[in-house]
Amino acid sequence: MLVETITCSPTASYPYHIAAKRYSAHHGGCITEWWYDERDKDLTLIFLHSTSFPKEIWEPTIEGLLQGRDRWKTRIREAYAIDCPNHGVAAVLNDGLLDNCAGMANRHEIFLLTGPTHSTPVDFSKRNLIGIGHSLGGVSAILMQAMRSPIKFMSVILVEPMLDARPGNDYEQLRTRLVRSAYKRKDVWSNREEAAAYFRNTVRWHPRIHDIFIKYGLRDHPTHAHEVSPFDGVTLACTRDQEALMYRDKDGATAPVQDLNAICSQVPVHVIFGENPDYLPRTVQDRLTDPKSGRRFASMTRIPNTGHLVSDMSICSVTR
Q1: Distance from C-alpha of 209 to C-alpha of 47, rounded to nearest angstrom
Q2: What total of structural domains would you count in the chain?
């Protein structure tokens, strides 16, 4: 798998840095741009991450899909993963710029409209795009599809989307729990080794996810650059305040459902849940997928032995 890092500088219309990565299967040791014909039906996958995780959290999934790309009925051309401006590498680039969290859908649209111009130019409006979003990344995928933009997905895959078809105490209780857990989260360690030991002992992640989070979900502590008594430790790339801010949008889980209703009638929308409703209550999931609502999903899948933090997603069948 070939990986290319891409950044976009702030503009008058969007005053934040955008950080993204482009993933492509090896073909003669270079990105496979040279053999691609825009008339081909190969897919370009756009991955949107969840709150508090960096874009690289999708890399095991992307790697698995690209390794099997020749087996699918429609081949996967390449994939892109984009950081939210207050997450991962983007959070470091946007030091001092982040007041309130920039709109998640906006940064995706800006990136796809602008394209990675510093390397091989890409016109995403001519691509067969599949939007894949986990948790709040799924909300972002819905909001972006609803925008008046030449960039459109031909299909959308929502993984444990933070959506609720109508206000309810069950979701409000979840929101309160998430905000409180964000503020209570440990966020400073003396070094990455200490942080790695802490996460190994406190969360049950696949070893690859552990390594990815330690590398990209943490950053040098901002005070490491102080001239007097610098602190050389590490901290969360997405701060506790920024994480809590992502959960606090009063209508953030319900308002996008109106857009989802329209999108379901326009393109195939697939929804994936973990079998264990450890975050999203089953009542919330059932309200979203209720056939009486008029929403028609192209497919609904529950992955056994997983919960909200799904780390091994079998989405190949719904991208064909």
Answers
A1: 16
A2: 1
**pLDDT on residue 228:** 74
Q: pLDDT tens digits, residue range 118-139? A: 556 788 988 999 999 999 999 9
SS (H, E, C) the chain: CEEEEEEECCCCCCCCCEEEEEEECCECCECHHHHCCCCCCCEEEEEECCCCCCHHHHHHHHHHHHHCHHHCCCCEEEEEEECCCCCHHHHHHCCCCCCCCCCHHHHHHHHHHHCCCCCCCCCHHHCEEEEEEECHHHHHHHHHHHCCCCCCEEEEEEECCCCCCCCCHHHHHHHHHHHHHHHHCCCEECCHHHHHHHHHHHCCCCHHHHHHHHHHHEEECHHHHCCCCCCCCEEECCCHHHHHHHHHCCCCCCCHHHHHHHHHCCCCEEEEEECCCCCCCHHHHHHHHCHHHCCCCCEEEEECCCCCCCCCCCCHHHHC
Q: Mean pLDDT for the chain?
A: 86
- Over range 169-176, report the average pLDDT: 92
The answer to whether residue 199 is domain-embedded is no
Residue 206 in any domain: the answer is no
**pLDDT confidence of residue 123:** 86
Of 26 and 149, the structure prediction assigns the larger pLDDT to 149
Residue 148 sits in a domain of what CATH number? 3.40.50.1820
Residue corresponding to tokens 């390594």: 211
pLDDT at 257: 96
* pLDDT tens column, 199-241: 999 998 889 999 999 999 999 998 877 777 788 899 999 999 9
